[in-house]
User: Fold this.
Amino acid sequence: GLVPPPVARVPRDGALPLSTAQSRLWFVQQADPDSTAYNVALPLRIEGPLDVAALAASLREVVRRHEVLRTTFRMAELSPGQVVAPPGGEPLAWIDLAQLPAHRREAEAARLAQRAADIPFDLARGPVFRAVLLRLAEARFLFLCAIHHIALDGSSARLLVQELIAHYRDLAAGRAPR
Assistant:
C-alpha cells in the first residue's frame, strides 16, 4: 500500500552527474576519441510511400522528448557531467540517390550506411546521434540512424524505433503524436 513520492525534475541549469555506465563509456571514449566501438547503428529500410515531412517532425518530437539525444558529456569541475541542450535544429539530413544508376545507387547507399556508423562522436560537442534519410527510388528509402552507446542501450533502441514509428503514423495521418 505504499505509494512512492513523485519524481522531481532536476534543474537543467548546470551539469548533471553521469550514471555509472555513462561514466565508464565516457572514460573509454576519452582514452580513444576516434573509436567507433560504441556507435550503435540503426538502419531501417522503408518500402512504400513516405511522408518525409512527417518523418522529420517525428524525429524532432523524439529528440524533444528524450533529453539524452540532446545531451553532451564533458568535464565539469572535477568529474564528467551531462549538459542538456534545449530542443531545436533539424535532426534529419536527406540525400537523394534515386538519380544514380541502380548498381551505383546500392553501392553508394552501402557506403553511406557504413560511413554513418563509422564516424566517431564527439561527446563534448555533440550531438550524440545522427540521422540521414536516403531516397533510393520513388518508394524506397533507407533511414540511417547512429547513436553513441552512452545515450542508448539495446532495450532503448527498440523503444526508440517503436516511438518514432508511432509518431510517424500519427503525424502522417494528421493527428498529434500520442
User: Anything to note?
Assistant: The CA atoms of residues 47 and 140 lie 5 Å apart. The beta strands are 16-17, 39-47, 71-76, 79-84, 92-96, 129-137, 140-148. The chain has a mean pLDDT of 94. Helices lie at 20-31, 52-65, 102-118, 154-172.
